[in-house]
Amino acid sequence: MKEHKKMYKAGKNWVVASIVTGAMASGLMAADMDNVQADTTTPDASSSTTNSQDSSASEQATIKVQNQASTPQSKANTTESTSESNTTAANTTGATSTSTDNANPASTSSTAAASSSAATSSSVKQDDTDAKKDSSKASSEITSGSKTTADDTQKDTNTGKTNPNLSTKATDVDSLISTGDDIDHQDTSYLAMQLNDPKAVQVYNQLTTTAKQVAAAAKLVLKDITPDQIKVLNKIYTDDQTNVGTRFTHDHLASIVDKFLKGDSSYTIPYTKAKAVVNMPAMQNVKDAKTGEIANLEIWDSWPVQDARTGLVQNWNGYQLVVAMAGEPHKSDDHLYLLYSKYGDNDFNNWKVAGSIFGYGLPAGTGHWSGSATVNSDGSVQLFYTNVTWTNNTNYQRLATLTMNLGIDGDRVYIKNTENDHELFNGDGYYYQNFQQWLDDKSGVDNFQLRDPHIFEDADGSRYLVFESATGSIDYQGENQVYNWDNYGGTAKDNLQRIITLSNKNKSLKLASVANGVLGLIKLDNNEKNPSVAKVYRPLVSALSVSDELERPVIFDINGKYYLFTATRLNRTFDVDSNNEVKAAIGDNVGMLGYVADSIDGEFKPLNGDGLVLATQVSANSRTATYSYFAVKINPDNIKDKTVTINGQTYDKDYFVNHFVLVTAYMSNRGEAAGKDLDSTLAPSFLLKLNDDGTTQVVAKSLTDQGVWDWNEDSTNPSYFGTKASSSLTPEDFTRVEVNDDSGHWKLFDKVTRTYLTGFQYIRSSDKTVYYDQNGDMLYGQQFIDGHWYLFDETSGARQYGFQTIKDQNKTVYYNDEAQMQYGFQKINNKTYYFDKSSGARTTGQRNIDGKWYLFDNQGVMQTGLQFIANQNKFVYYNQAGQMQYGTLTLGGKKYTADRSSGAIKISDGQQYIDGHWYLIKGGRPQTGFQYIANQKKTVYYNNQGQMQYGQQYINGHWYLFDKSSGAMKTGFQYIAEQKKTVYYNNQGQMQYGQQYINGKWYLFDKSSGAMKTGFQYIADQKKTVYYNNKGQMQYGQQYINGHWYLFDKSSGAMKTGFQYIAEQKKTVYYNSKGQMQYGQQYINGKWYLFDKSSGKVQTGFQYIKDQNKTVYYSPKDAHMLYGQQYIDGKWYYFDKSSGAMQTGFKTIAEQNKTVYYNNKGQMQYGQQYINGHWYLFDRSTGAMKYGFQHIREQNKTVYYNRLGQMVYGKQVIDGKEYSFNAATGALMK
């Protein structure tokens, strides 16, 4: 990297160092800071390994200064460690002060000298937390090799200029701490309060403005900050760069890692039964594009041919088409094939191969990688792909396209030919890294990526490609990005902790320095079969210092939003330790990220807060390991009913297609990673729910057949439903087989021993434990085995666990984790139950056990505390052991008497507070349900034990809210803080859902959670998009929202699109498909229009387009641009048939076989005209330029116009005869 070259080489001096600071790695708590000085060594080589444990001490390079003027350095004592989280402490003597003169956040160099004392242990503390010692030690940073002292004025590392605010007086604290965009909650008084300490002042004067902001936000103790920490702080900067799009931050990554480890079902890729997975039949005995051999091919990155506008799978002449990368295992799998099957056919066996798109015998060192495809207007297929050439020891990638012409022969689809194959984009160098930039900065851990173009057509007909790339010069990769505060995204404390931790890890630091993956966007011109790039946009998403790979982006619009998905792997991030932790826990680290925006080039917000949508929970070498996730919209035409039911949940058809997408992938890692002959194949697809609140949910029981790209009501295939256990294969899966003998008994046959197995056996493919008797027959129902009762499913034979109802014995029993029936008292899920000691039957109601009375509810749960026995009309009290109590009792500080025989307690009528609960007693009985307390003017609710309830309660199918203190039922709008939502309760206290008309305003509440909606919302049953302000109220008329004007119907609130007349402003404007008012030139329905850049008013008549230096004309009738000859206000004009530009000068009108002349106002001229030194004559009626002899009646002369239409003079030979024309007037002389 160019910046790195500047950093490491200055004149004859080579300076090499790596930060070994770990002092703040424990939450910025106090950490021992031994005095540190650098030793000398040689630069270490970059490692190309990205998935091994980062080694701090073994890889730490301390300072080497080749400077004869330098003072000798003392040797450092180092302690080796191979853990990413450990650090090396170097013990040094001597004291210097630190200068920030040359600290420049635009590079990573520093000439500051470390200052520390051997007798001092410094630390960074949190102001309000007791400091805990940490074994991590501070390190030295890069020094100049000579001592420097802090000057009274120093340079600001953000600007390189002398900063007068850095004086030793340090009085104007407020002026030094701004409200930086990403440094939140800065306490401007916090640093000022510390400046009565000379050490704090000394540290303060050495910090840059940004470092002060960080110190204030993180509440650091100035006097305890070490010189080495100062250097790290002074490298931190903010660039406020908006040209890199949405940032995938360190905070996002930390959250994602946590979700991987927790295995949250919301993100877990559904488990597939491994034994159900098969190699793709269509790829058997296929000709390999490279070797030419007939072989069984494996298939991986694949995509359907889609409608570029809708994103739906295209129905091409009754077929669905898929493009896939495929090839022979262990040989070559980087070429593209076309596959097809009948449209709507879900059968994996029915796919066929049309052939290799690029032919056969393809040369070594070439490849064709992932992309997308759509159908052109003439029926041809436009393929967008990645063209790859092996050069400079890497895959040189370019975005490319070609046209495929296809044919049908019977039931066979074949490739006729291809054309228009050309490269589209090589990286512009500014937004996106080009290959030369990568070569200039080539390192062993950096990858070049420019691939995976995905075609998308917006509502206005504009076509775009989203693709994977890396940042260009606008915000280039480099070690400086490690100190870019904008890349972190967390709290000040977390950000600082991560920066210091990362600066201490050599391997991770190297990876972070080259991590610059982005999702890019370019616009194509209107030539669908031979397109070129019309515009390059800034990245949509960037992962600077976080990840170097965001693969296979997919974008589409749905329900008024633009969704962007990308596949990714944690081992392509900088975080070596987290990747290792996830891989150790799961065995793989792949997933999918998702983002949502209001426009194609808008601000994409990460779904689920951090972007994670999918996370694997199976090992990379599992048969069911998946990758290369590809989201596809669902075609409403595929759904015949008005509703769709998934996992017992029924949705309206419109809601379903606007909130669910199908996710496809390939299965098993390539190269027989799961086992011999287990090739990479297409995986079963599954559904992903897109919630309106920006969250998502994997639908686990939605797996389809393998290779389904276009979901319909018959797509789900339960035979693929698996569990974590059944998602992988073991050697036993290849040696044991279930068989059904002639008598109908299921047996388990062992191929090795050639015997039928007996006893308990675990069947992995079905994830069940069964039992085979001495004859090898599977048993069912209740079975007494080795002194214990077991229960086996009557159909599958699976051993049962937990609560089970034995219907023919009218009892509920419980089987423990060993599936054995339990007896007596049992603690289950923190609840106590009692099971009959003889029959195992669960007890309910009152029961005398060993001379003590107990009470169990109708679910068998033992009760404690005050209870009302309704059929005996008495209150009794059970202690914590569940035993009824007698005699004098003290409940809630008040004494009661329990009858010594019956245990009955007398309680007075009215409201009574007993043992922590309010009761309402009438006639000695507790009241239940809703009750109105007249003297307190409140409605409350008592449960079936008569206890007043508080907070949210679900009662008889409705949610209610009761005051947490008084128990009063709430109505109206209420904010539920713990769920961060506002809801509405009607006069009956019931939570409301959907559209509600309240106090003259329309509101919308989520149909599931009741949360009040704000912002844009699509009302499916009314087929309208509306907008709710931050109070949740539907808006009408013109509204200015997030920098755009919108128009909503004054009656229905429906968002308007297209041309609209604003009567009160007497103007016609245009709103695009997103409802945003448009300005300037706009191409609408095949015609150009012009809208005022300020008011949006449609323009008519003559208009000058400054940036195109042309005058055009817009029809006064319908406002679109006019072309060709136009008669305007009694004058003829001519406008270019392509650009609409008004023409001046000579113009040949081919269809009228005439040449005319338009003056500088664009008006056609007639009669005699003096033009550029020549007289011309134009027909007085048609404007046609005259030639030859012409008589000018008003001048009584005959003149001659040559073939250029110019009047001639003097002697002229015309048609072989000599004529003389007056030299002044041109008149023919006799």
From TrEMBL:
Active site: D301, E551
Composition bias type Basic and acidic residues, residue spans: 125-136
Low complexity bias spans: 38-58, 76-123
Entry binding sites for Ca(2+): N346, D446, Q477, N516, D548, S715
Protein residues bound to substrate: W300, S370, R451, D452, E549, L550, E551, R569
SUPFAM superfamilies in the record: Arabinanase/levansucrase/invertase (SSF75005), Cell wall binding repeat (SSF69360)
GO MF entry, a single one: metal ion binding
Record keywords, A-Z: Calcium, Metal-binding, Repeat, Signal
Biased composition (Polar residues): 59-75, 156-170
One biological process term in Gene Ontology: carbohydrate utilization
Domain of life of the organism encoding this protein: Bacteria
UniProt signal peptide: 1-30
Cell wall-binding repeats: 822-841, 843-862
Region (Disordered): 35-173
Feature type site, description Transition state stabilizer: D452
Cofactor requirement: Ca(2+)
Family: Belongs to the glycosyl hydrolase 68 family.
NCBIfam families hit by this protein: KxYKxGKxW
Protein name per its UniProtKB record: Levansucrase
Phylogenetic placement of the source organism: Bacteria, Bacillati, Bacillota, Bacilli, Lactobacillales
